[in-house]
């Protein structure tokens, strides 16, 4: 029997040490951060970046974002969408892309799909 007093624990079985992770969550609440203010008012005349972060492979979200861009064009003909891929793996930073979005974009949707 293994008693769980912490999230990671060790148990010796047959001379080998086995480390397991207790998947039970703690009772601590995560600090909530408010959403960014919505200051655009309208998307008319705006540029919206759709950023694929690479989760699920090179074409997982990219194909979905291409469809989203088509739907935006049909429903909101006055906006421009730009579908881009973030460089590096999904958790890596891409400062050049974020600078481009800040400089040339008015809104950004970052997402994953798999």
Report a brief summary of the structure.
With 114 residues, the protein is of the alpha/beta class. It has two helices and five strands. It has helices spanning 60-75, 95-104; strands spanning 8-13, 16-21, 47-52, 80-85, 107-111.
Percentage of residues assigned to helices = 10-25%
Let me know the average pLDDT.
Answer: 81
| Overall 3D shape | elongated
Helix/strand order, N-terminal first: EEEHEHE
Radius of gyration, CA atoms, in whole angstroms: 22 Å
Quickly count the helices: 2
Which stretches of 5+ consecutive residues score pLDDT under 50? 1-8
Number of strands: 5
Strand content: 25-35%
Can you list the strand order of the major beta sheet? 4-3-5
Separation, N- and C-terminal Cα atoms: 38 Å
Largest sheet entry: 3 strands, parallel
Give the structural class. Answer: alpha/beta
Q: Would you write up a description of this structure?
A:
There is one protein chain. With 114 residues, the protein is of the alpha/beta class. The chain has a domain of 65 residues. It is 23% helix and 25% strand. The chain has a three-stranded parallel sheet, with helices on one face. It has a two-stranded antiparallel ribbon with strand order 1-2. The longest helix has 16 residues. The two termini are 38 Å apart. The N terminus is likely disordered.
């Amino acid at each position: 029997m293994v008693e769980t007093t912490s999230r990671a624990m060790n148990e010796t079985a047959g001379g080998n040490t086995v480390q397991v992770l207790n998947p039970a969550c703690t009772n601590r609440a995560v600090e909530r951060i408010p959403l960014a203010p919505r200051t655009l008012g309208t998307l008319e005349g705006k540029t919206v970046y759709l950023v694929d972060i690479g989760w699920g492979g090179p074409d997982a979200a990219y194909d979905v974002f291409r469809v989203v861009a088509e739907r935006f064009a049909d429903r909101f003909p006055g906006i421009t969408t730009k579908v881009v891929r973030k460089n590096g793996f999904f958790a890596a930073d891409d400062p050049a892309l974020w600078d481009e979005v800040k400089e040339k974009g008015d809104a950004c949707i970052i997402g994953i799909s798999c």
